[in-house]
Specification:
Elements: H1 14-23, H2 35-48, E1 53-57, H3 60-71, E2 76-81, H4 85-88, H5 93-98, E3 101-105, H6 115-121, E4 132-139, H7 150-162, E5 166-171, H8 174-181, H9 185-188, E6 194-198, E7 208-212, H10 215-218, H11 221-227, H12 236-246, H13 250-269, E8 276-277, E9 285-289, H14 292-299, E10 305-308, E11 313-317, H15 324-335
Parallel strand pairs: 2-3, 2-4, 4-5, 5-6
Antiparallel strand pairs: 1-7, 6-7, 8-9, 9-11, 10-11
Helix pairs in contact: 1-12, 2-12, 8-13, 13-15
The structure holds pyridoxal-5'-phosphate (PLP).
Pyridoxal-5'-phosphate (PLP) binds at residues 59-61, 85, 139, 143, 170, 172, 200.
């Protein structure tokens, strides 16, 4: 069963399991007013080294929906990449909860949004007949496994400020991006208003965080959290898992490992005929095209997803528990593949 389908397929980091066990003592105040949640909120302020509000939520879709609905009015529009998870893979949850218009913006070959494209969308400001742009949402690392540089994020942030927008980041794999850039968490969040911070894909059992850096938005996020049904009565069990990730920089060790496994996978399969690597490998995923028959043959041994059925592009995702031995076995299967 172990394969390259998703970092969501992986289990739970032992340190996170221990943290859950440790949190499972006695009774505690519900809805995030307990001591564990309070101290983990302080830990967030310390590691991100910025004033912030953080709330803990159940899942990534919920984190995105909460982030957006905290920052918009129902006559707003939200700009996001045409390939974004938010636009393609969250059903109509974003529309249902925000009531907003979503404007998919053409991303470049790396799955990134460029400032010039955004500028063309920022039109008819103040026109009551036109949905008013309020958020630019980026994914870091992107759905293609590429990573925005800190300068690219800063430039997009400046643009949002010039036009009165908020910058949101879907950071479902934010820790992988930080490890890829070799950046501190503090450097990573200097130009963000609101962040959906992923934990599950890095080895938590469940749970994500919404981290709000913009002071105006910070005031209302807790009210919105309840309204959009993302307030867990036993919040401490999500907070405790984040504590495990942040303590002793476990996030860095873990994200670095899955990123390195993607590099190793890339190195080991890139020279096979029939395989073409299609995206730069910068985080924990490799994209490649391969013949359909090869995909079927490999999938019988290692599950993974076809990303684009028309081009036979597949997505090979590495997780915290991916090993070199598994990658060697996968590469050996490719080597032994007989197209006949
Ligand atoms: C980039 C990105 N954002 C958000 C999510 C949403 O996470 P969830 O499935 O927990 O709602 C995912 C999940 O795969 C994702 O890849």
């Amino acid at each position: 069963m172990k394969g390259f389908a998703s970092d969501n397929y992986a289990g739970v980091l032992p340190e996170v399991m221990d943290a859950l066990q440790k949190a499972n003592r006695e009774h505690a105040i519900s809805y995030g007013d307990d001591d564990i949640t309070k101290s983990v909120k302080e830990l967030f302020t310390k590691v991100f080294d910025r004033d912030l509000e953080v709330v803990f939520v159940f899942n990534g879709t919920g984190a995105n929906v909460l982030s957006m609905s905290t920052a918009v009015e129902s006559f707003s529009s939200i700009l996001c990449a045409d390939i974004s998870h938010f636009y393609n893979d969250e059903s109509t949850a974003p529309e249902s909860f925000t009531g907003c218009r979503f404007i998919p913006v053409a991303s470049n070959e790396y799955g990134k949004i460029e400032p010039e494209i955004i500028e063309k969308k920022l039109i008819r400001k103040g026109d009551i007949h036109f949905a008013q742009p309020k958020i630019l949402s980026l994914t870091q690392s992107t759905e293609y496994g590429t990573v925005y540089s800190l300068e690219e994020i800063a430039a997009l942030y400046q643009l949002t400020k010039q036009h009165g927008l908020y910058l949101h980041i879907d950071g479902s794999r934010f820790f992988n991006a930080a490890a890829s850039l070799k950046a501190s968490l503090s450097d990573m969040v200097q130009h963000i208003d609101i962040l959906s911070l992923g934990g599950t894909k890095l080895g938590m059992m469940f749970g994500e965080a919404v981290v709000v850096f913009n002071k105006d938005l910070a005031k209302q996020v807790r009210f919105k959290q309840k309204q959009v049904m993302q307030l867990a009565s036993k919040t401490r069990f999500i907070a405790a898992q984040f504590e495990a990730l942040l303590q002793n920089e476990l996030w860095k060790k873990t994200a670095r490992h899955s990123n390195e496994m993607a590099q190793y996978l890339h190195k080991n399969i890139k020279d096979f005929s029939f395989i073409e690597i299609t995206k730069p490998v910068q985080a924990n995923v490799v994209f490649a095209t391969m013949p359909e028959k090869m995909t079927t043959y490999l999938q019988a041994h290692f599950p993974f997803y076809v990303w684009d059925e028309f081009t036979n592009e597949v997505r090979l995702m590495c997780a915290f528990d991916t090993t070199k031995e598994e990658i060697d076995s996968f590469a050996a299967l490719i080597k032994n593949w007989n197209p006949e």
